[in-house]
Amino acid sequence: MGKNIKWGILSTATIAVNAIIPAILSAKNSEAAAIASSNPKVDEWARKFNIKQVYRSYDELLHDEEIEAVYIPFPNHLHKEWVIKAAIKGKHVLVEKPAALTSEDVMEMVQICKEHKVLFMEAFMYQFQPQHLFVKEIIDSGEIGEVRHLSSTFTFPLNIHQHTHEFRLNAKHGGGSIWDVGCYCIHAAKTLIKEELKSVYVSGRFHPDHHVDMTATGILTFSRDVTASFHCSFEESFRNTYEIHGTKGTIFLPNAFCSDRVDGGLGEVTVMNGGGEIRTELFKANQYVLQMEHFAECILAGKEVWYSGTETFHNTRVIEACYQSLTEEKIVHL
């Protein structure tokens, strides 16, 4: 039996207890060794997941020499501080998206991780679902011709009255639909379109009291006149899709970012080619487990992660440009 990476989980955030800790428990090379939180329920969660070590503060966990990697799911504005603290303590870092609220902060975080010889990765878990590898294979095969446009949507209804203190409604804490879900759409476009991004234009609606974007629609223009559009919202029914249009066909994913919500992790890709053929391929996999296994394997093998800090930097730059466009109501050139 191979070695397991000992993980420390900072906080009892919903995504940590609902997705990440169960994924660590299911991963072939990982162990949930410690959890830290001032939340009184931390002991209850520790018992449920059989996590032996409980800390009342994050700093205490970072001082634990047995912990090799940490998962950080804090509100967006706190990511930089704790990524740097973890790196200085020699912990490999998997941080929830968005990794930081400025590209400058991302650069600093990545550099400090390099200086302390620890791995850094932003947790865009969706990209580990095998359906996206299949999409890339279809594009590379030429079956749908040259990619001309990608359209994506990620929306869900956020109950404002129930979540008054939700960080997603706090502009200073990195709230807003683009930071929360639009970032997935932008990431997918930059990953699947191989051209250089030239400009962005975004329009949307800000909440009159919370001052965060509740809904946003954007156009990304790449070289060779390839485009991508995205739509994200806290005010609409749940959708998470992308569609790629080529000169000879189309690819459609109905569960592009949250395949874990369907039958325990079901990806679905429909390909419509120029010959009129329509076929659908299914991919059963837990994208969270695959993410944790990949990060742990990179630590064990001493190799770089699939999604690098440099790519995180460039993705954050695009999001910054989107917010500039939305605020100033103009096209922003990159």
TrEMBL record:
The keyword Nucleotide-binding belongs to this UniProt entry's keyword annotation: no
Protein name: Gfo/Idh/MocA family oxidoreductase
SUPFAM superfamilies found in the cross-reference section: Glyceraldehyde-3-phosphate dehydrogenase-like, C-terminal domain, NAD(P)-binding Rossmann-fold domains
Highest taxon of source: Bacteria
Keywords carried by this UniProt record: Membrane, Oxidoreductase, Transmembrane, Transmembrane helix
Domain Gfo/Idh/MocA-like oxidoreductase N-terminal, first and last residues per copy: 12-123
Gene3D superfamilies referenced in this protein's UniProt entry, alphabetically: Dihydrodipicolinate Reductase, domain 2, NAD(P)-binding Rossmann-like Domain
Family to which the UniProt record says this protein belongs: Belongs to the Gfo/Idh/MocA family.
